[in-house]
Design brief:
- The structure holds two protein chains of two kinds.
- By secondary structure, chain A is mainly alpha-helical.
- Chain A contains ten helices and no strands.
- In chain A, helix 4 crosses helix 7, helix 5 runs antiparallel to helix 6 and helix 7 crosses helix 9.
- Chain A is globular and about 50 Å long.
- Chain B is flat and about 40 Å long.
- The longest helix of chain B is centred in the middle third of the chain and has 14 residues.
- The chains are: A mainly alpha, B mainly alpha.
């Protein structure tokens, strides 16, 4: 696995920061202004073929993932980390386990999520029930049953929280596939203990 | 469609949808916006799945138009080929 993303090449070509012109440069700047950061992350460069879609992806990610909703941001990052583990997406697993840490998770819990070892993640029974559901939907949504959803209600999750969990699981199904199809190099946020600027 | 895929939609209600008649507030507004734009009356099930977050529903409609329901680097026809085959592979009868 490449550790230096400057030297790593993706499977499908993307527009690098320095090479961006026109609409792509404008979309990259749109992300820089919204995030306050400089270096466009690989997952967003994967969308450079459609800068109009890139800007929409920045917006809907802020709406549904990078904010509290019916679910807390912390629970969303748990969902994102575990879905990325199940979908074998190293790029998203690393970045969202790091975001989980910024939401107050211990180093031990972050390490547990990085290894898909939820027994060691110090989760409540409600959180474990939610993670079990993440597994069911990620592996085979078509196979889920009314009873699977009832188990979440019994664990205390409200209907709109379950609905939002599904949006997040689906969001990661999408971004995990994009990151893995492009071969976006992992950023090693967890190991570095920080994001790239 | 093979019976094993058709059967997926016959498992009964799982997560509750906000139906057209029960929508209030922002959800009702987002549903009305879709009706006005599409010229249709009844919300499709896939969009009612997003009733819990009408702000996200609006964004889903917008990016679906941008990337799927229009010509891009790929033709709309090739996009529908992709969507149809992916839905077959993912066993999504809807």
């Amino acid at each position: 696995m490449p550790t230096n993303e400057e030297q790593a090449v993706t499977k499908i070509k993307v527009v690098e920061d320095a090479d961006a012109t026109g609409e792509v440069a404008e979309a990259y700047d749109y992300w820089r202004a919204s995030s306050g950061r400089k270096k466009v992350p690989g997952i967003l460069k994967s969308l450079s073929a459609r800068p109009d879609f890139l800007k929409q992806a920045v917006d809907f990610s802020n709406t549904i993932q990078f904010s509290d909703g019916h679910l807390s941001r912390r629970h969303k990052e748990m969902i994102g980390s575990y879905a990325s583990y199940l979908n074998s997406c190293p790029y998203c697993l690393d970045s969202h386990a790091f975001f989980l840490k910024t939401q107050g998770a211990t180093d031990e819990a972050v390490a547990a999520f990085m290894n898909g070892d939820l027994e060691r993640a110090n989760l409540t029974s409600a959180e474990l029930a939610l993670m079990k559901y993440v597994e069911l939907v990620s592996k085979a949504a078509y196979r889920t049953t009314p009873d699977d959803v009832q188990k979440l209600r019994d664990a205390g999750w409200k209907e709109e929280q379950i609905a939002e969990a599904v949006y997040i699981i689906a969001l990661f199904a999408m971004f995990n596939r994009i990151a893995n199809a492009f071969g976006v190099p992992v950023q090693n946020y967890v190991a570095m203990g920080r994001m790239t600027p | 469609m093979p019976a094993y895929i058709q059967a997926v939609s016959q498992l009964g209600e799982k997560i509750k949808l906000i139906q057209d008649a029960d929508a209030t507030g922002e959800t009702a507004l987002a549903y009305d916006e879709w009706r006005a734009k599409s010229g249709r009356m009844q919300m499709p099930g896939i969009l009612k799945c997003f009733g819990a977050r009408p702000d996200f529903l609006r964004q889903v409609l917008a990016f679906s138009d941008t990337i799927h329901f229009s010509e891009g680097h790929l033709s709309r026809r090739h996009k529908e080929m992709i969507a149809t085959y992916v839905s077959f592979l993912n066993r999504c009868p809807y």
